[in-house]
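U., I forgot to send this yesterday:
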Amino acid sequence: MAKLTPHLAPDKRLLLTFEDGVGPYSQHAMIHMQVQFTINVIPDSDDATDYDVDLPSNLGPVGIKGYSQEDLDEHLSLKYVPNMSIFTLSGDGGDIDDNVQFIDFTES
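Result:
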């Protein structure tokens, strides 16, 4: 929470982006067997129609692409790894992505 909260405001939206190349916030579609996600902050006024499901979190709703739910667990945890400046996304079954990058699209 301490890492993400300074980037949040009422005029911003938090996304958990499945990196499949779909939508304006997906950075790439890697061709490998690894599931890959990024955490994004976008202006609330930006188009986020690909993010059709909101997951509840202790930071407020997190938008996801609905079909990415098949790669997620019901109970999710996002932990910051300070020495690597990355996040780890895990669920009931263990780690989902151990290299979640953070991108704030509201910063120039």
